[in-house]
């Protein structure tokens, strides 16, 4: 499911399609949007089969911007939720930017960017020797298991990052896990836009959010983790705070107590 690196990793369209087809799916769809839900996740920014240029990526063999723009139809954000049949307190989710055809109302949409994760809401946050939470994280990915250890081992640091807010005040955890953006439409703030979309869809009283900012690549230096984390923190609406730049570089937490909507965000997306 991932390369084994902790953090926000990329998701392929085929994997998302597979996710959408498994278990029991709940779709909340308005005229222009769709919705699913996912469980606890960690956030990395990987870019496969691509050549790195700082935080941007130039990939060969991918659809060019002109081709993306000339395909017709329209591009729109949606959030899709999927129930976990074995754990009713766990939901999987995918925020996506998709291209839809004007003349096909049932078009599932071609995925151009995605952010995935999962939500666990048993009424409390993980504690030491918590078998239920351990299994929930362990069944998903190594990324999620890293998040579990941070939540359990660094509770004091997390409370400090949240300005002294006790973890006993939280009743659910959302882990932002994987982010992918078509290489030819990067550099337009889509990562932060999808994170705000997740905040809007997932926000609720008592929700603790955790993620790791992790650029693509093996043996990524701490400086790169901190740089990407700083970028995620630049969006003040998200309210993300570092757990510890020294002990846990790249790890961020936040309190998403309500479904906030950014005044500048719209359902549709244009390349202009």
Can you walk through the features of this model?
By secondary structure, the chain is of the alpha+beta class. Helices cover about 25% and strands about 25% of the residues. Strands 1, 4, 5, 6, 7, 8, 9, 10 and 11 form a 9-stranded mixed beta sheet that branches. A two-stranded antiparallel ribbon has the order 2-3. Strand 4 and strand 5 form a beta hairpin. The longest helix has 13 residues, at about 190-200. The protein is globular, with a radius of gyration of 18 Å. The model is unreliable at about 1-5 and about 10-65 (pLDDT under 50).
Note the topology.
Elements: H1 13-21, E1 24-26, E2 51-53, E3 56-58, H2 65-70, E4 74-83, E5 90-100, E6 110-120, H3 131-138, H4 142-153, H5 155-161, E7 172-181, H6 190-202, E8 207-212, H7 222-233, E9 241-244, E10 248-255, E11 268-269
Parallel strand pairs: 7-8
Antiparallel strand pairs: 1-4, 2-3, 4-5, 4-11, 5-6, 6-7, 8-10, 9-10
Helix pairs in contact: 3-4
């Amino acid at each position: 499911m991932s390369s084994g690196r902790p953090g926000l990793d990329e998701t392929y369209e085929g994997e998302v399609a597979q996710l959408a087809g498994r278990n029991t799916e709940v779709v909340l769809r308005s005229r222009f949007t769709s919705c699913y839900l996912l469980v606890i996740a960690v956030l990395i920014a990987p870019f496969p089969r691509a050549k790195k240029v700082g935080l941007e990526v130039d990939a060969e063999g991918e659809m060019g911007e002109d081709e993306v723009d000339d395909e017709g139809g329209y591009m729109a954000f949606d959030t899709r939720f999927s129930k976990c049949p074995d754990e009713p307190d766990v939901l999987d989710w995918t925020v996506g930017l998709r291209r839809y055809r004007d003349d096909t109302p049932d078009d599932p949409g071609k995925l151009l960017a995605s952010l995935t994760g999962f939500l666990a809401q048993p009424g409390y946050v993980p504690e030491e020797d918590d078998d239920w939470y351990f299994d929930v994280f362990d069944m998903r990915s190594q990324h999620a298991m890293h998040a579990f250890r941070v939540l359990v081992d660094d509770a004091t640091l997390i409370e400090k990052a949240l300005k002294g807010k006790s973890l006993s005040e939280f009743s659910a955890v959302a882990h932002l896990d994987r982010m992918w953006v078509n290489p030819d439409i990067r550099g337009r703030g889509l990562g932060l836009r999808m994170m705000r979309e997740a905040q809007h869809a997932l926000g609720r009283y008592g929700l603790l959010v955790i993620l790791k900012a992790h650029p693509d690549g093996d043996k990524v230096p701490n400086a790169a983790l901190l740089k990407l984390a700083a970028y995620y923190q630049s969006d003040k609406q998200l309210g993300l705070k570092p757990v510890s730049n020294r002990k846990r570089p790249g790890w961020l937490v936040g309190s998403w107590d309500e479904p906030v909507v950014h005044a500048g965000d719209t359902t549709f997306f244009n390349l202009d």
